[in-house]
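Hi all, a correction to my earlier message: I attached the wrong file for Glutamine synthetase repressor. Here's the right sequence:
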Amino acid sequence: MSSSELQRNRAVLPMSTVRELTLLTDRQIRYYEQHELITPKRGKGGQRRFSLNDIDRLLQIKDYLDAGDSTADIKELFAKAERKNQAQLGTDNSLRRSLQDEFAQIARFNNP
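and the right structure:
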């Protein structure tokens, strides 16, 4: 994971900032959390802390709802995307292992 991706995953934004950035209400954000569309981290005292990726996801949710999708539809869309990402990650890891094996064989030929 790149350093910029790590920064995007840092949960540091409070609810008030998220409200301003997304134009969603506290109630809407809590509702999306209740329906497991988002999972913000919790800070000391239990306050929700959001990352930039959480903001992106909330904006996606808002767009899907504006387009007429239900929360169940959105949850399934996110689940499908996650399964696709996991499958791609598995393919990437398989390819990486295959390349490592090839490099090991080449090294054995070069150093008998």
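Sorry for the mix-up. The radius of gyration is 20 Å.
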